[in-house]
Structure of Fc receptor-like protein 5 isoform X1:
Amino acid sequence: MVPVFMPLWAILLVLGPVPGQSVSRQFTAALKSRISVQPPWTNYFSGDTVTLSCHKPGFLLYQIKWYHGGKLLSHNTNTFQVNESGNFKCQADNLLPSKSVHLEFSNAQLILQAPFEVFERDSVVLKCQEKKRTSRSNITFYRNGQHLPHQGTEYHIQNAGLQHNGDYRCNNRYASSNKVKIQVQELFPRPVLLARPSQPTDGSPVNLTCDTQLSPQKSNVQLKFCFLKDNLISRQVCSQDPEYHIPAIRKEDSTSYRCKAGTSNIWKTSRPFQIPVQIPVSQPTLTLRTPRTQAVVGDMIELHCEAPRGSPPILYQFYHENIILGRHTAPSGGGASFNLSLTAEHSGNYLCEATNGQEAQRSVTITLNVIVPVSHPGLTLRMPRTQAVVGDTVELHCEVLTGSPPIQYQFYHENVNLGNSSALSGGGASFNLFLTEEHSGNYFCEASNVAGAQQSEAVSIKVIVPVSRPVLTLRAPKAQVVVGDVVELLCEALSGSPPILYQFYYENITLGNSSAPFGGGAFFNFSVTREHSGNYSCEANNRLWAQQSDKVTLFVTGLTGDRSGSVAAGLTGVLLSMVVLAAGALLFHCWLSRKAGRMPASDPTRRPSDSEPQEPTYSNVSGWVELQPVYSNVNSLGGDVVYSEVRRCTKERPYAVASVPLVPENKGSPVIYTEVKVACTSASKPNCQPPQ
């Protein structure tokens, strides 16, 4: 029983640590109230009185509650006398209720009395009490139905152990007692050796604690403690202190430790405990393992981190620009690796961190430059006009959409290297080319960096050569051109990209045109008359440039033969008279036709030259303004003169070339020209040639 009032020194003593218990275990034990019985039995005769006490170890009691069969009683003192059967328990202040104790008050003639609790190594007394004792009584004790060889009313158990557990009873000659169950409890559990800190570092202090817990019912027992290293007593004398201090533990001290806790008659040894002396990790080294000298997009690289020193297990963490990529543990020490499939975004700074529960260490930062291979480049031609022309400056621009700089660009014409250019910061590059005729063909470019090269699609350039000034050549069958000869006009430009269109002119009037689709020159043939004497020229045009030749003069002489001038003059006069009469009749007929509405009125702006005779023109290419000869031959019966009527007809031009001179539009009435030729007769055959 704890008195209500205690001196101050006694309070301090009670508040002190309980030997043999860790602080945490003492606190746990103090959380539960404790009940005691006096006399220390659980079975009594009816009429006996029992004193129950409630305890709160280490503290003063302020409020007590008593329970009988779960019912709260009105008693509030720390002691309570009872004389009736039932289960009793108490609660001290705000602690947990105590263990329940069952008291039995019996009217039997014989009862067996045993302690409320039995602990290992206790000395236990069992009493067989008779209500009316006689001198002839003979008491016999039984455990689990087996007779115990003993005489007297008391049975003593020395150093109680687990072998003494069981159901006990006693008999005399007249009656049998109640059964009492004996359950031997541990005085304290097997100790556990603890180290603080649990994973000390090399050179740090360590406290070893032999941790166990006495039963609250046996708080008055004093335990002793011994510490062993490799099964050797590390102190010469064991003490009541459950802790052992190591000032500076070393790696070689990481061995097996044990502790023993006990009393004079009972000792218990802890399991062996290996103190894991931790060696802090040293600064790790980060290594980048790449399949080639330069890391390229798509490569699989290995990041390997390893600390030369440090107790395992070691946790490694990998970082890219301070963002964690992943972590790996090396349970037995050594290094760890992390694999990474590279993209363009993986360029940057990398480091790793190693820790084994102590202070973490970081590696030196490593910079990784991930090379992006160049994509297929695009080749662009930048020209001053739609068509590339000799003398122009063309810019070849080559550029890739993706690729790590520096990028080397090379330019090719028909697989011949023209030159190269570098883009140190990325982007494209250009190459300028002054065009000549030989620069026609296919062009492509190639882009390369340390990861490889790519070629563009081919682009074709056709360099147009402007036509040179053409040369006009007249080819005749003989040196002196006479009426009736066929003359060939040859126009040729020595240089110029085909197709070339040639146009032929007589006194700035278009005769016709001819095309040279593959280059070279063009021809124009016609049969000459006296009126074809004059200047001729030609023009060459390849739609880029037009050039005119120098003028060439053609002289056409009259008929050959020895006819007398008087005959010719006479015939000419007669013919001219007939022509005048025919022309007058025709004009009068046209005037009547216009008056009747059958023919449109003539243009009032008609030039006087429209009625004058014009030279006939010939064309061997359709589509241009042409002068077509129309012949109508009238032969007199038996006469020597041939009359030729020539009409000029105009066709529409399907297309026009700006550089080709046009024939002035003739808006007047058709004009009829008459040419007189002398035919040979039988009388003049010796001196006459057939007309040409």
Summary: The radius of gyration is 69 Å. DSSP finds three helices and 54 strands in the chain. Residues 642 and 677 are 5 Å apart (CA to CA).
